[in-house]
């Protein structure tokens, strides 16, 4: 017994680099990881830079007086939705601030929240909000949400003979619940007057892994058409059995590309990278809107922002708003304990909210609307640095 | 004088080694025990009757029935073993009984190489080649085939070593009585190595049940169904844990840990059965 399991765990450690950061969760979780914890941790540092590197950093700053002129490392983790943006922002920020090193590990929003809450990282990025009970458990006390960008989630499809497709929320809900099974169903036809639809079977593709994209997509259906949508909203929901699942946006895109008659939800950059066709989706104003950086920005103009800068961005008001627009935030503790680090975090967040916003369109996400961006920049003052 | 000094040394070393060995053995038990206790405690809220009887797995509703995943784990492992055992035995017998010496060494080397390929490589191969070009899609069968490929080297190399221990006298006796090579294998090699081969198969089975990433990539991640159709998408316990842990919240997390506990128990049972079979056949062998 022990032999089998241990050898596998060791193998997981050894091959972890190939698994990617997501797999680290499983190792950490796999209880036998205790057996090789030291080995894993060492690997982790080389890869993403985290626990041990931070501890070293802490020791370093504790040993010498806090002059904060030396090199500083700040570590963040979380949302894979933000991965591309974080890479861009870190690159730009490091050019201007040579003595600050920023590391970001895109292991998923849930991991980002957990790491931040346990103070394994200095900042976290997440597509979903902390539950109230979890927020209270955060080791660093009160923290602040900073909105970063908005992104469209496409309803992509692969059907010969349909080049333009219009869908309304109830139709999407029925397709993903397997109540509509043919492409020439009369409800799809009702959304697409004058279009000749083929009698192909519909294949539904969704995420196999827990995901913020699934959460926002199902939140949209749950908000826009609560009477029809029965699966509720969450990072994983109870998809019908006769559906296909792929790992990550890329996995779903791959199913869509290789399966005739398939439909699935994929974020805009991945859908474009895979060359998928995607539907225009009917918004609250009754207009069919194409997902794009602009239409996601338009959705941002129509959202109601709460005092803590959290909001729901799906099913937004506005004539030009794309309705399946997902939000994402980064979080930082309000009371920073280390001067050098606190200053660096503040500077990096400021960079993300100002200079980096201009680059967001280039990666097919939507920058924050002006008013929201201003509020986020103003909130930076609430981060207290000793 | 010199002798007693030597003996004194020896006794000291003996005692130190004894202590070390006991400590090492104790540590294994301690770790196993701690894992079992800690995980069971963490999983406790989810470990109800529903967990073992329901086929509904819905995180938003907080309903967690693991039956389809338990089924999927056992079913894919069974497919894998059924595919792997004939091939492994064939290869092991070929290497030990048939292959000329110049072919034997590279074959053994290649098999060992196959055993160290990371499972994610097999998984990706399954996604990109098996599921797309062989029309298997993502299904129990695809997962079973991938798992079979992964456990073939394990079963083969263990079976080969067991078969190698067949006394030459027994084989020669069979041949001397006029047996063909096949009759020699069935009459003396296989009966001699039955226990060891069973143990090898069980170890392969354990590996197949616990395999995570390759299964997660190709099994299809379907929820809420138990079916014997090998071409239907399914799910297995390790695959569910791998896929859903990252974004899981509290009741969901407990349910995933409960899956791990169940998997832990099942692998322990499989390994205990393997040990029992091996021991019994060894006893019988000695008696005969």
Concise overview:
Chain A is an alpha/beta fold and 386 residues long. Helix content of chain A is 41%, strand content 17%.
Report on this model:
The complex is a heterodimer of chains A (386) and B (288). Chain A has 16 helices and twelve strands. With 386 residues, chain A is of the alpha/beta class. In chain A, strand 6 (203-207), helix 11 and strand 7 form a beta-alpha-beta unit. The N and C termini of chain A lie far apart (53 Å). By secondary structure, chain B is mainly α. Helix content of chain B is 78%, strand content 1%. Chain B contains eleven helices and two strands. A two-stranded antiparallel sheet of chain B has the order 1-2. The model of chain B has no long low-confidence stretch (mean pLDDT 87). Classes of the chains: A alpha/beta (386), B mainly alpha (288). At the A-B interface, helix 1, helix 3, helix 7 and helix 11 of A face helix 1, strand 1, helix 5, helix 8 and helix 9 of B.
Features:
heterodimer; A: 386 residues; alpha/beta; nine-stranded mixed beta sheet; three-stranded mixed beta sheet; B: 288 residues; mainly alpha; two-stranded antiparallel sheet; 2 strands; globular
Record the strand order, biggest sheet of chain B.
Answer: 1-2
Task: Give the CA-CA distance, first to last residue of chain A.
Answer: 53 Å
Structural class of chain A: alpha/beta
Quickly give the structural class of chain B.
mainly alpha
Mean pLDDT of chain A: 84
End-to-end Cα distance of chain B = 49 Å
* Count of separate DSSP helical elements of chain B: 11
Overall geometry of chain A: elongated
């Amino acid at each position: 017994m022990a032999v089998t399991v241990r050898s596998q765990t060791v193998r997981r450690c050894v091959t972890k680099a190939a698994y990617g950061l997501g797999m680290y969760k499983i190792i950490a979780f796999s209880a036998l990881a205790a057996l090789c914890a030291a080995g894993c941790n060492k690997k982790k540092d080389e890869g993403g830079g985290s626990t041990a590197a931070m501890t070293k950093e802490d020791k370093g700053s504790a040993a010498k007086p806090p002059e904060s002129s030396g090199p500083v490392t700040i570590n963040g983790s979380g949302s894979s939705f933000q991965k591309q943006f974080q890479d861009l922002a870190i690159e730009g920020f490091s050019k201007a601030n040579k003595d600050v090193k920023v590391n970001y590990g895109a292991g998923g929003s849930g991991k980002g929240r957990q790491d931040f809450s346990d103070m394994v990282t200095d900042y976290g990025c997440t597509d979903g909000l902390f539950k109230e009970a979890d927020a209270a458990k955060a080791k660093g006390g009160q923290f602040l949400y900073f909105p970063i960008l908005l992104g469209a989630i496409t309803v992509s499809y692969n059907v010969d003979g349909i080049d333009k497709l219009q869908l309304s929320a109830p139709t999407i809900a029925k397709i993903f619940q397997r109540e509509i099974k043919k492409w020439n169903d009369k409800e799809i036809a009702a959304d697409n007057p004058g279009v000749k639809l083929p009698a192909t079977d519909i294949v539904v593709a969704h995420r196999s892994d827990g995901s913020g994209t699934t959460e926002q997509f199902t939140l949209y259906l749950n908000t826009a058409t609560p009477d029809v949508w029965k699966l509720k909203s969450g990072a994983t929901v109870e998809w019908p059995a006769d559906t296909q699942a792929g790992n990550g946006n890329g996995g779903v895109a791959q199913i869509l590309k290789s399966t005739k008659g398939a439909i699935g939800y994929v974020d805009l950059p991945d859908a474009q990278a895979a060359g998928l066709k995607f539907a225009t989706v009917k918004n609250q104003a009754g207009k069919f809107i194409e997902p794009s950086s602009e239409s996601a920005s338009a959705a941002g103009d129509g959202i109601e922002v709460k005092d803590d800068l959290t909001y729901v961005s799906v099913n937004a008001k506005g004539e030009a708003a794309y309705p399946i627009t997902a939000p994402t935030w980064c979080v930082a503790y309000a009371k920073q304990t280390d001067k050098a680090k606190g200053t660096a975090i503040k500077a990096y967040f400021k960079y993300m909210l100002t200079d980096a916003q201009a680059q967001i369109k280039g990666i097919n996400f939507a920058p924050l609307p002006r008013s929201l961006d201003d509020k986020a920049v103003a909130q930076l003052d609430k981060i207290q640095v000793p | 004088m010199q002798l007693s000094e030597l003996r004194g040394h020896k006794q000291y070393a003996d005692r130190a080694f004894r202590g070390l060995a006991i400590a090492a053995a104790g540590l294994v038990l301690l770790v196993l025990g701690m894992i079992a206790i800690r995980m069971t405690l963490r999983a406790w809220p989810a470990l109800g009757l529903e967990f073992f009887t329901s086929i509904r797995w819905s995180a938003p509703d907080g309903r967690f029935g693991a039956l389809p995943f338990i089924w999927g784990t056992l079913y894919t492992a069974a497919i894998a073993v059924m595919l792997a055992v004939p091939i492994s035995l064939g290869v092991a017998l070929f290497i030990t009984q048939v292959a000329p010496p110049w072919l034997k060494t590279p074959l053994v080397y290649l098999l060992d190489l196959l055993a160290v390929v990371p499972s994610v490589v097999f998984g990706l191969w399954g996604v990109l080649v098996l599921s797309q070009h062989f029309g298997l899609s993502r299904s129990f069968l695809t997962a079973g085939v991938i798992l079979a490929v992964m456990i073939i080297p394990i079963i083969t190399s263990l079976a080969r070593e067991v078969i190698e221990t067949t006394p030459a006298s027994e084989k020669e006796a069979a041949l001397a009585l006029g047996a063909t090579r096949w009759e020699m294998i069935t009459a003396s090699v296989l009966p001699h190595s039955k226990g060891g081969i069973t143990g090898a198969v069980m170890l392969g089975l354990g590996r197949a049940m616990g395999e995570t990433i390759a299964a997660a990539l190709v099994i299809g991640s379907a929820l809420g169904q138990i079916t014997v159709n090998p071409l239907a998408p399914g799910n297995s316990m390790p695959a569910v844990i791998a896929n859903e842990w990252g974004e899981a919240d509290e009741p969901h997390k407990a349910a995933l840990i409960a899956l791990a506990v169940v998997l832990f128990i099942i692998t322990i049972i499989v390994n205990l059965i393997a040990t029992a079979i091996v021991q019994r056949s060894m006893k019988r062998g000695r008696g005969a």
